[in-house]
Amino acid sequence: MVAEDLVERAGELKRQLVEFSQQPRYDQAFQAFLAQTGGDAEVWDEDRFVLLWDSFLLEHRLRNGRTVVEQFVDARPDLSPQERQMLLGWRDVVSGVFEVQRRDGPALILVNLVDDLTYRARSTSGRSVLRRMPKRSFLLTRLVAVGDEWAFSGPTSVLRPAERDVAARLAIQMSLRSPEAAFRNPEKLARAWELQRAERQTFIRFFGTDLVVVPGEQAQRRLDEFYAFRQEEILREKPEAARRASGTPAPVIELPPELVESETVAFIYDEDDGLDFLAEFGLVAEAYADPELVRRRRYREQVLSYLHDDSVAPMVLRRLADRDPDKASALFRRLLKRPRFDWARDGEELLRSVKPDHFARPPLPSVTPVGERLAAYARR
């Protein structure tokens, strides 16, 4: 197919996909998806509802682990290989805040403020749609691949050029909420790893180690002191930043109540997983050092919580077990009632079974760099 034909066919297939998704068998799954997003669907405007529907079709995994678009492709043996490849590629949606650089025939040249990449995007609804998207305006939208180009998917909100600050704020929020969106750009991903490694070294210089355990009542103060130390180092190394930051307090992460109210809190700055905070780490560490402690309910429940809570990364349990693999084996024999359990042999399989989501995605840095287009706004 030539490009124009493929764009037209993409629009036709998208309409057929929407019709396919309106079968009663998807009603319950969509309602569950809406419940996960929060809010009241009855008060949403049409754009909000269509945006969620588009995400449901292309990205949401049903109970069987498949997406609606995958099931649509399976139900259409008449599709050509090119059409099947295109539809399945729509699972990889590019969301962002896009600045319109210029019109290029039937397409727009866009720069995504989130990932700093350039996209040539078309509308499957015709060229007339592009008239409301002038040069230097900003588009809050989603793109899917159509051949070597891109097409709008779902609703598009347009911000005027004068609303640049609004666009920048939304792009920064999106980068922080979904850093994988920024890491589509390999240069940003490489830069993020560099920043994370540098910050980890700062953490080690301040605490003397990459894992420190403090009383819960001291956790917020110690964290604030670390960030003040970090800012002082940055300002010493970059005098121009010192001039801009005159009178600016150190950045602060406010720890949630369940952390500061616990007996102990661990700060771990792992090389791959980044900075993490763990409540009641002291209890779990004691149980690893003395497996007999899991006979007590308090210790047993806390270790099981670390094992089954998806917010606790596998590396935490690995690091605890690496202190004494034999004691780790004894701990899990008692905890899981598996008398032949051996950490060296069975530990990794256990982690993969209880924390599958961590192994289903590649590790990403916990630091998100701000692109040049957002730097001025971020400094303000």
Q: Please report the number of helical segments.
A: 18
- Report the portion of residues in β strands: 5-15%
**Mean of residue pLDDT values:** 91
Structural class: alpha+beta
How helical, in percent, are the residues? Answer: 40-55%
Protein described:
There is one protein chain. The chain has 18 helices and 9 strands. The chain is globular. The mean pLDDT is 91. Helix content is 52%, strand content 15%. It is α+β, with helices and mostly antiparallel strands and 380 residues long. A hairpin with a 2-residue loop joins strand 4 (138-146) and strand 5 (149-152). The longest helix has 22 residues, at 186-207. The protein has a 5-stranded mixed barrel. Strands 7-8-9 form a 3-stranded antiparallel β-sheet. The protein folds into 3 domains: 3-89, no CATH class; 94-182, Nucleic acid-binding proteins (OB fold (Dihydrolipoamide Acetyltransferase, E2P)), CATH 2.40.50.140; 211-270 and 273-360, no CATH class.
Features:
380 residues, alpha+beta, OB fold (Dihydrolipoamide Acetyltransferase, E2P), 3 domains, five-stranded mixed β-barrel, three-stranded antiparallel beta sheet, 52% helix, 15% strand, globular
